[in-house]
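We now fix the convention by which a protein and its fold are recorded. Think of the row as the fold of the chain written in a discrete alphabet. Here is one such record, which you should read through line by line.
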Amino acid sequence: MIHIRPAIASDLELLVAIDERDEGITSSKPARSASEVVEHRQRIRSMIDADGARIADADGTPIGVILWLVRLLAETDPTYVFRQLDASLFPADGRFIEIFQLWVDPAYRRRGIATALKREVEVAARARNIGLIYTHTEEINTHVLALNAKLGYREVRRGPIWDDVVRVSLVKQLR
């Protein structure tokens, strides 16, 4: 039986390992420095602490993960992709959720787990009165684009973000 639960502090190593895999991502980034590794762990720990992480378990074995950040548009780096989007996409208060990581074990894909995890983010957004969810993926990840379209996300940008890889930015407005 599959169960989705909030991540807890003891899940940190799992979440860091999954995020480090960069599965489905074309990476041109050099290896992280020691300080970047520490910063990365702290960022993921902050998502756990802020209730921005869910784990899908099958009989106690983690088979899926979603991580997200609550953001405020005015406090994001002016050079980041959010500032390239039409500001009218964002709620008046500027608060939104950015999905940071979505992963499902290959043996469990195409069973609705990613859908269930993304729905958990919607529940969290509504509970916080946040009206927008943002995510992006590489344009070659057609299965991820199809999933997002099925869930009501719409494309708002296509192009490179931090390297030459074309990524598709998607948003979902929540009512």
About this structure: The mean pLDDT is 90. The chain has one domain: 2-173. The longest helix spans residues 34-49. The domain at 2-173 is CATH 3.40.630.30 (Aminopeptidase).
